[in-house]
Design goal:
Number of domains: 2
Structural class: alpha/beta
Order of helices and strands: EEEEEHHEHEHEEHEHEHEEHEHEEEEHE
Helix content: 25-40%
Distance between the termini: 18 Å
CATH topology of the largest domain: Rossmann fold
Radius of gyration: 21 Å
CATH superfamily of the largest domain: Vaccinia Virus protein VP39
Strand order of the largest sheet: 8-7-6-9-10-13-12
Shape: globular
CATH class of the largest domain: Alpha Beta
Number of helices: 10
Strand content: 15-25%
CATH architecture of the largest domain: 3-Layer(aba) Sandwich
Largest sheet: 7 strands, mixed
Length: 380
């Protein structure tokens, strides 16, 4: 059995992994953007989070993808998530805005402007900040003000009362510098409010399902506190989102003495060892059931499939019917939906999502898949 991953002194590497930055109707590449790249996870020991190590060429590939007029990100009319995850995070932002009562709100990485449109309907003035052609197109469709640039210290011409961002914190190249830029852009008493991925459980058990080239940072609650306090924030509230596996974070710029952070165990320290055990277990599972097995939630299964060199050999399924028949860049099979499930007694399913594994398992059982033929990340 060929191993397609390795552990080095400072990082864990998948030699090649699909670079899934869009959902498309065809497996063909576009615009010279590579469909697969290496993926290397390193540990930031000072701030207790995982981050991707990427070469300059790999960063250029990612930045070129962000610049396209494509459905980057999932909170847009084509995503199928407007009334689930999108609804949850928008209510969070609205609650914070109602509390802060700012004259103007800035949204970093506004994408298709879904949140801006929602906040506008509730009476708030929101300016988007996003360099992509996709965002420019939607700013013209929806009629919102857009600063077409990456965010830094010089982006705003006045101090802000409230800055929000959804699914951005995990994407930025230097999250420590980014947090500092936000802090300095806020007026005294200003608030930074954001939603980001919660990777705590994956870090604890050595799970690589969180790995994707767009998510260059993978956080625990502890790491977010450390990063924001390093930027200067003192009042920080971190709660779990009410849909999916996310953090909802509110950080306020106030002039008070730093309080000590309660000492906690740094979770990332032994991640490579835990991940190695998990990958070895998946390899054994794959070679035992691979020809009989389909994989549910492709965005979470793809890293595991890449670890055994599978870039399109096995069927991949997702419950989001908006994705049915579409392709992930670098994986040569289209995504299947629940209606495509074959209830053959010999059929096996690997469920890649720990967040929705209960719902998916119940659905598969309702489709006459035997519970003993349903496998989960936790089982590895």
């Amino acid at each position: 059995m060929t191993q397609h991953w390795s552990v080095h002194q400072n990082y864990l590497e998948l030699g090649n992994m699909p670079f899934y930055w869009r959902m498309s109707q065809s497996p063909d590449p576009i615009n010279g953007i590579k469909q697969s790249l290496p993926a290397r996870i390193s540990i930031n020991l000072e701030f207790d989070f995982l981050e991707l190590m990427m070469s300059d060429d790999e960063w250029k590939n990612l930045e070129k993808a962000y610049g396209q007029n494509e459905n980057i990100g999932f909170i847009n009319p084509e995503s199928g998530q407007l009334d689930t995850y999108g609804k949850s995070v928008n209510q969070f932002f609205l609650n914070v805005a109602n509390s802060v009562q700012p004259k103007k709100i800035y949204e970093i990485g506004c994408g298709a402007g879904f949140t801006i449109n929602f906040m506008k309907k509730h009476g708030w003035n929101v300016v988007g900040i996003d360099p992509s052609d996709y965002s420019k197109k939607w700013s013209e469709i929806l009629g919102f003000e857009l600063l077409s640039t990456y965010f830094d210290d010089l982006t705003l011409d006045a101090e802000a009362e409230l800055i929000i961002c959804n699914d951005v914190f995990e994407h930025v190249r230097n999250v420590l510098e980014f947090s500092s830029h936000v802090y300095h852009a806020l007026k005294p008493g200003g608030v930074f409010c954001f939603s980001t991925t919660n990777s705590t459980l994956s870090v604890q058990i050595g799970d690589i399902s969180m790995l994707e080239h767009q998510h260059v940072n993978m956080f625990t609650e502890h790491s977010i506190s450390l990063i924001l306090r390093n930027a200067g924030f003192n009042q920080i509230e971190i709660k779990k989102g009410d849909y999916g596996n996310t953090f909802h974070v509110v950080a306020r710029k106030v002039s008070i003495q730093h309080s000590n952070i309660a000492k906690r165990h740094f979770l990332c320290t032994d991640f490579f060892e835990r991940a190695s055990h998990k990958l070895e277990a998946f390899s054994r599972f794959y070679h035992k059931y691979g020809s009989q097995c389909a994989f549910y939630v492709p965005l979470r299964c793809i890293p595991y499939l890449a670890s055994v060199g599978d870039f399109g050999n096995r069927p991949i399924f997702d419950s989001n019917v908006k994705w049915t028949g579409k392709y992930i860049d670098g994986y040569k099979r289209p995504i299947s939906g629940p209606d495509d499930i074959d209830s053959n007694p010999s059929s096996h399913f690997f469920v890649g999502s720990m967040t929705f594994e209960k719902q998916i398992t119940e659905m598969l059982i309702s489709q006459n898949i035997s519970p003993t033929n349903i496998h989960r990340i936790r089982d590895l």
